[in-house]
């Protein structure tokens, strides 16, 4: 299975991971042969990369932090929360709690699992996918930091709903295919205050959930917003969601901004700690996210090419795709002589 840009996908390839639409429904299932028509349509819809395999190729099993079923329900639940908030109705907190419990059940039963997939997003499903991913990454970080399940619950809820206040921002600003003006940026920044107000009015949610949404753009040196809090004035949940949100945004890209690879985003976040991000949170993030997710096409220091077929907290399993060892599998551990030098796709 490879993660390839649409232009490199040929008609002998099939979809290896399902594509979800903005409602959390499956738009295209895995196994579907990617005909020219499908590819043209997906390109039109704004998809840039897909997980694919050649027809007949065997796909190795690998574990993911959250099942496709939970992913779908979470996207659906977040969308529902956003539409309720947009109409100034109360959220369905029972359903939000249920989703949080599913996410925690799955993440806590899988001790070595990493955040190991790139997301397949387009502009339609971007927002809810983003929120769910930030929820999953924040939970993985909290697990690394030794949080109890109870404490994680509020963090995961706050992370899933961190951008809820966006429903109060003029949608015309949010869909601009260009960098925003200062005035537009100021309007967008208000989403943190709006999110706090919306979430604090939910009696069934802990006030910490509202504070997480309020503080997720604060930065350690006081350069963040809305209040310019410094260091530990920012609640730990806010510091965690700041890292998860930044990683997710950096690796997603926008029309006017190219997505970073996972290893590049991790490097950048490490370089920005301790000024912008809590170094302990960044260290836990580094242990929670795969630098080279499954499907990455890489070049090794032996000049051979390979595909990452599995990755967990202890090792990366690659399959050679060129050279004399083509198709052979190999485990790369931190002290292995063979190392990944570059990611091609
Ligand atoms: Fe935000």
UniProtKB/TrEMBL annotation:
Q: Which Gene3D superfamilies match?
A: Hypothetical protein af1432
Q: Which InterPro entries match?
A: HD/PDEase_dom (IPR003607), HD_GYP_dom (IPR037522)
Q: What is this protein called?
A: HD-GYP domain-containing protein
PANTHER family assigned:
CYCLIC DI-GMP PHOSPHODIESTERASE PA4108, CYCLIC DI-GMP PHOSPHODIESTERASE PA4108-RELATED
Give the organism the record lists.
Capillibacterium thermochitinicola
Q: Where is the HD-GYP domain?
A: 105-301
């Amino acid at each position: 299975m490879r993660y390839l840009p649409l232009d490199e996908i040929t008609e002998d390839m099939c979809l290896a991971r399902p594509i979800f639409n903005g409602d959390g429904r499956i738009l295209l299932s895995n196994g579907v042969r990617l005909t020219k028509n499908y590819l043209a349509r997906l390109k039109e819809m704004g998809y840039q990369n897909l997980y694919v395999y050649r027809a007949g190729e065997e796909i190795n099993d690998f574990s993911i932090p959250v099942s496709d079923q939970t992913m779908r329900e979470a996207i659906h639940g977040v969308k529902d929360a956003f539409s309720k908030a947009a109409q100034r109705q109360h959220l369905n907190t029972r359903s939000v709690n249920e989703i949080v419990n599913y996410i925690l059940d799955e993440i806590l039963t899988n001790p070595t699992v990493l955040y190991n997939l790139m997301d397949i997003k387009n502009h339609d499903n971007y927002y809810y996918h983003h929120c769910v991913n930030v929820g999953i990454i924040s939970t993985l970080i909290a697990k690394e930091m030794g949080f109890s399940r109870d404490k994680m619950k509020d963090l995961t809820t706050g992370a899933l709903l961190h951008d809820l206040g966006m429903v109060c921002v003029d949608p015309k600003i949010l869909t601009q295919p260009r960098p925003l003006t200062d005035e537009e940026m100021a309007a967008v920044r208000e989403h943190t205050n709006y999110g706090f107000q919306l979430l604090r009015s939910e009696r069934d949610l802990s006030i910490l959930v509202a504070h997480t949404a309020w503080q997720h753009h604060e930065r350690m040196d006081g350069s963040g917003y809305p209040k310019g809090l410094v260091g530990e004035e920012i609640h730990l949940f806010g510091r965690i969601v700041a890292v998860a949100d930044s990683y997710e945004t950096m690796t997603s890209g926008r029309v006017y901004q190219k997505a970073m690879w996972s290893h590049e985003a991790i490097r950048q976040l490490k370089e920005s700690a301790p000024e912008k991000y809590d170094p302990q949170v960044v260290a836990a993030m580094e242990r929670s996210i795969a630098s080279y997710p499954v499907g990455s096409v890489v070049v090794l220091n032996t000049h051979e090419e390979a595909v990452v077929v599995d990755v967990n907290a202890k090792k990366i399993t690659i399959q050679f795709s060129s050279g004399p060892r083509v198709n052979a599998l190999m485990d790369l551990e931190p002290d292995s002589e063979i190392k990944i030098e570059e990611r091609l796709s």
